[in-house]
Amino acid sequence: MADDGAGPGGAVFTTQEESARAGGSRADSAGSRPSFLSYEHPAASTPRSGRQLTLESHGYRAVIASIGATLRALTHDGRDLVVPFDAEEVRPNYRGATLAPWPNRIVDGRYSFGGAEHQLALTEPSRGHALHGLVAWAEFADRVVEPDRVVLTTIIEPQAGYPFRVEVEVEYRLEAVGLTQTVTARNLGMDAAPCGTGPHPYLVAGPGCVDEWTLLLPASDVLTVTPDRLSPVAVEPVEAHPQWDFRAPRLIGDTFIDHAFTGLARTDGVAEVRVLTAAGTGVALSWDEDCPWVQIHTADTPADPSTHRIGLAVEPMTCAPDAFNSGAGLVVLQPDAVHAASWSIRAL
User: What's the pTM?
Assistant: First the structure.
């Protein structure tokens, strides 16, 4: 291949001398050093949320952003099923992000594993926790790109607080039953690695806000948390907390929810959360027994009316919040081992 003059990473440099060879004027004084007139970087045209991959099938349209393997938008017959964001936005509030190698929080960012103490960066500084894993801001590479399916990958390299090498593969697939996401973790290292995963979509039932929608959440137990830092306290029956008992569909109203639930009722091994409008339109998120937990959040941001309670976060999780300490649902990946979990979103 001929040398195209590209610099590192494919950047293109243009000098006065090169411009003259192309028909422009030379520098006025002989021997003067060339001056750089332009620097074009291939990332310059990439949106802030990363490369955009669009899937379309059976009336569904999904847009996946490569940073964080993020579900940026999902519609059915033109109707939003998740709260979208613009391609040029820095993704707000983990909206649609893939969470790995842990979902939710690790309290104080500290945990013990394999006989060693580990300290993670506190990525939720206001509460002093390590939040939502290590890949939410990672660039994912394409492995498969098809009209109704993409597979993206990234590698978590050993680092302070998580000295393990784990590949994370994310598949999005559109079918008549909706959008299915599968996250597969592979331990590429020589030591066992702690692992967990989950998604972070904000579901949209239809017009209006969370207060106007009906929720079906088939969970018999809730993980109570401290009011200030949302640190886990205890798993308790929802009968003791009737405000969080949505086993029978009912209006969410002004109820605040930012809790993990378990004890999930299933049909043929599948649990499903449904969010509906008064008119009967809505959205469902379902998952199998690989996710025994689900985080529900009413997206309360009273300081920002533009995002306040505009969607309901429904986050199936392979493990409990702070599982790196409690061990509840924690996956321990042995060298060369693989673990996968899936969930699906469909229109109602």
Answer: 0.88
